[in-house]
Here is the input.
Amino acid sequence: MSANALTDLSDADLTDIVTGLGGKPFQARQVSHWLWKHGISDFEQMRNVPQALRTALAAKFSPHSTALHKAELAADGTEKLLLKLHDNDNVECVIIPDGERTTLCISTQVGCPVGCVFCASGMFGVRRNLSAGEIVEQVLIARARLPEGRRLTNLVVMGMGEPMLNLDGLLPALQRIHDPDGINLGARRITVSTSGYPKQMERFAEADPSYNLAVSLHAADDELRKELVPTVTSSVAEIVAAADSYFAKKNREVTFEVVLLAGKNDRRIDANNMIGLLRDLPCTVNLIPWNPVDEIVQEHGLGRPSEARVDAFAALLRGGGINVTVRRQRGADRSAACGQLRLQEL
Here is the structure.
């Protein structure tokens, strides 16, 4: 594998390289078509590109720089992929089939700087940002694993890393994923999740097209949220205001995500605080019962709430006028928690 991957090149850069190697501009478009539409991994697969140009490209570049290192298939069809980067670091992505729908969850950083106490992704901190090409390559690798008749329908940027802290990589990656000449996935099918960085959320709101935004809230009061997300610097009020501003600019309802922890943030008082914070906003609260990670259980004593307790919390929110969804556990028999597969490797 090489860091000199075509996936990190803009269309203009690819055209300059192809013409610099003696090719024609239309041949750059052919190379791009093979790369994004067909997801080729070898220049020899570019059948309508002249051999001399294929050889010249292969001498300096690789189609992409990421390779599948390990895959774990769960009984429910969820597949977790551990991908090896050109520098031998690893990131995860997850394929989640559900009826006609197939969702891919991708990462934006190697590790995570946010340090949520319940999350395996940040246990070793953050090593670096992913490049735009490395972000998109997760989609290419996952798409190639889909069985015939199944296609990628939705993308969530909710894997390892904090997307708002790598907008320089994420925004061009999303453009490529959305572009009809790229992977061609509609913007309404793309959701980006953040732990809440108001200034970066404002920049994200300037992006065109408009993507869906999810905010990992976890608690409606600052003291508890600081306990769960120790690196937080913005108040809950500031984060919610930034989300409300996003709705005002994009007319896209924001989802607030809450990882529920037994006896920690799933109490009646937590529900009442959340109702008071969110009931006047056009939003949905997505409740996510925690996927336990042994190392975190041992260190922090956290636990997964019972299904009855999750349903009771959801009922309280609905009774307070909040629109609620509950995410049921997927891939429970195969390293269900995000970052867990990489954690095993480390």
About this structure: The radius of gyration is 21 Å. The chain has twelve helices and twelve strands. The chain has two domains: 6-60, 67-345. Residues 236-250 form the longest helix (15 residues).
